[in-house]
């Protein structure tokens, strides 16, 4: 921060206009955001538009249409001829900078008689890094701010004005309403407050810190690969990926059931072999503890089901719906067998998530976590589990509507026990997949093991789990998309985050290192819905 970055930060903070340096884009009469941006850029004292926020790129509008619109705005404002004689922009089809003049001619920059200093210059997102054009000595640039904009990209964009360090050129900022709201929330400002350069820098630096935290795992993986291959070049070979589908295809794909069964069988055999090799201090295989815990959970579930009859409402006592010594005894046994803890209590206690206000969200009290699920890492006393959370991929769904989140090994062990049981007392679900069937209400027998009959409705397969429980589990997982904004799970999410809880929702998603997915997502829409759908 004392070298180039510090110098650029100092230059940006020393701009002549501080308060009110950010123009909040207002869309009038339903005009698109890109048109609102061009209206501001072509009506003020600006000589260049630097789209570091990718507002033009995300609009899906061709550069030819943008240039045509800019010419119209410049003519309406009386700037053509008086200040500008054309528009300079980069054309992807010709792969070079073009200069368009008033007569409609488009020539390559090196062939055009018009210098770029006499034109309005548009730097698209890709050209905000590395492009070097000679602008007016007193040029003013309009820099766009987009979701999650970080320090490096902002500085690269502002650096296109080469005379910033001499104090003759300057920059100002344009932000859509959602980005302006995020800046105010970061700086603790009320909505009417004007935004200055110092507020932009504070927001950008926070985005940079969060982006660096999200990249730690990738850096660690690269460092581990380097350490493993150092001195052993034969280990450096990795599969070569050349097809686009290898990079961008959906991780979920259809596969024949026999191949899945064979792969799971091989995986189970490998797990048993590792369990035989890795033993604890008294010689007991490592996998035995998980198997014993799984059998203990199922035995308590079956015992609870016997007490409650065919309804199998095995966790009713945990919801305080029954009284009596026998019920309390079952609750104690079940807690002891798997170390069950309600999700709200776990967030406040065992996990100690930061900020502490996360525990104040109205999480469903019918979502439970096992001890193994919660303990993904050994934390220092008083430390928060942010960044060390286990993803809730598997869960036991009871007919009572309770949902028990499991660790991976617990799910594998319980699955084996369920296969042996004649009448499994619960359904074992895949949490990420169950929402799709839940919303569609379609038959989904593969979502459960044993307890689901072919052709059963998704709600029955889910064991009576409600939308509130699913919404709590998905938000705790850091999910940002909830199957569309018309479904009941999205409605439950709106109720969960009602009352201006945007900051807490962002904190929960950041704890899962998924902050970049929040912008324009279902989770953000739920925070802004204000009322139930």
Calculate the terminal CA-CA distance, rounded to whole Å: 47 Å
Number of domains: 2
Q: Strands of the largest sheet, in order across it? A: 1-8-7-2-6-3-4-5
Amount of helix: 40-55%
Query: By helix and strand content, what is the structural category?
Result: alpha/beta
Number of discrete helical segments: 20
Low-confidence runs of at least 5 consecutive residues? 280-289, 303-328, 442-461
Q: What is the general shape?
A: elongated
Mean pLDDT: 80
Structure, described:
By secondary structure, the chain is an alpha/beta fold. The longest helix has 22 residues, at 287-308. The protein contains 20 helices and 13 strands. The chain has helices spanning 4-13, 33-41, 63-76, 151-158, 177-187, 197-214, 216-229, 244-248, 257-277, 287-308, 325-338, 343-348, 371-374, 408-420, 431-440, 458-461, 467-476, 488-496, 502-511, 522-528, and strands at 22-24, 48-50, 86-91, 96-101, 106-108, 120-123, 140-144, 170-175, 341-342, 367-369, 394-397, 403-406, 427-430. Helix 5 packs across helix 6 (197-214) and helix 10 crosses helix 14. The strands form 2 sheets. It has an 8-stranded mixed sheet with strand order 1-8-7-2-6-3-4-5, sandwiched between helices. The relative contact order is 0.07. The chain has 2 domains: 4-214; 286-528, no CATH class.
Give a quick set of tags describing it.
5-stranded mixed β-sheet, 10% strand, 533 residues, EC 3.4.19.12, elongated, OTU_Deubiquitinase, single chain, 20 helices, ubiquitinyl hydrolase 1, 2 domains, cysteine-type deubiquitinase activity, 8-stranded mixed β-sheet, alpha/beta
């Amino acid at each position: 921060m004392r070298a180039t970055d510090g110098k650029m930060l100092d230059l940006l903070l020393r701009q002549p206009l501080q308060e009110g340096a950010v123009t909040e884009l207002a869309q009038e009469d339903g005009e698109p955001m890109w048109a609102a941006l061009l209206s501001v850029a072509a009506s003020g004292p600006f000589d260049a538009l630097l789209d570091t926020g990718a507002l033009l790129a995300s609009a899906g509008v061709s550069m030819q249409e943008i240039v045509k619109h800019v010419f119209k705005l410049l003519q309406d404002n009386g700037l053509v001829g008086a200040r500008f004689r054309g528009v300079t922009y980069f054309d992807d089809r010709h792969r070079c900078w073009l200069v368009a003049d008033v007569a409609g001619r488009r020539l390559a920059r090196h062939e055009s008689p018009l210098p770029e200093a006499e034109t309005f210059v548009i730097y698209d997102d890709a050209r905000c890094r590395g492009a070097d054009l000679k602008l007016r000595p007193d040029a003013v640039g309009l820099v766009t701010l987009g979701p999650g904009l970080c320090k490096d990209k902002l500085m690269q964009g502002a650096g296109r004005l080469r005379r910033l360090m001499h104090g003759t050129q300057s920059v100002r900022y344009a932000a859509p309403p959602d980005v302006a709201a995020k800046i105010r929330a970061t700086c603790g400002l009320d909505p009417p407050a004007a935004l200055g350069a110092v507020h932009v820098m504070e927001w950008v630096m926070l985005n940079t810190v969060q982006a660096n935290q999200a990249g730690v795992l990738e850096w660690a993986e690269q460092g581990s690969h380097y350490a493993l291959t150092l001195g052993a070049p034969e280990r450096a070979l990795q599969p070569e990926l050349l097809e686009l589908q290898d990079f961008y295809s959906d991780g979920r794909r259809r596969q024949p059931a026999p191949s899945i069964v064979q792969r799971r069988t091989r995986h189970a055999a490998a797990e048993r072999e590792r369990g035989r090799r890795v033993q604890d201090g008294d010689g007991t295989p490592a996998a035995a503890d998980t198997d014993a815990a799984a059998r203990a959970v199922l035995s308590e579930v079956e015992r609870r089901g016997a007490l409650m009859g065919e309804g199998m409402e095995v966790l009713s006592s945990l919801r305080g719906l029954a009284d009596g010594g026998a019920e309390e005894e079952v609750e104690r046994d079940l807690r002891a067998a798997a170390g069950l803890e309600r999700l709200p209590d776990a967030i406040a206690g065992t996990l100690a998530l930061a900020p502490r206000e996360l525990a104040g969200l109205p999480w469903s009290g019918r979502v439970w976590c096992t001890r193994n699920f919660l303990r993904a890492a050994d934390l220092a006393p008083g430390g928060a589990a942010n960044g060390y959370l286990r993803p809730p991929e598997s869960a036991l769904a009871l007919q009572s509507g309770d949902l028990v989140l499991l660790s991976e090994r617990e799910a594998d062990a319980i699955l084996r026990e369920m296969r042996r049981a004649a009448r499994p007392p619960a359904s074992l679900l895949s949490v990420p997949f169950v929402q799709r069937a839940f919303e569609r209400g379609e038959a989904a027998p593969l979502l459960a093991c044993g307890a689901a009959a072919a052709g059963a409705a998704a709600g029955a397969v889910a064991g009576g789990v409600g939308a509130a429980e699913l919404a709590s589990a998905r938000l705790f997982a850091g999910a940002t998309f909830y199957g569309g904004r018309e479904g009941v799970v999205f409605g439950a999410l709106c109720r969960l985050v009602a009352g201006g809880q945007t900051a807490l929702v962002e904190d929960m998603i950041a704890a899962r290192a998924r902050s970049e997915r929040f912008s324009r997502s279902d989770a953000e829409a739920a925070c802004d819905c204000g009322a139930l759908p």
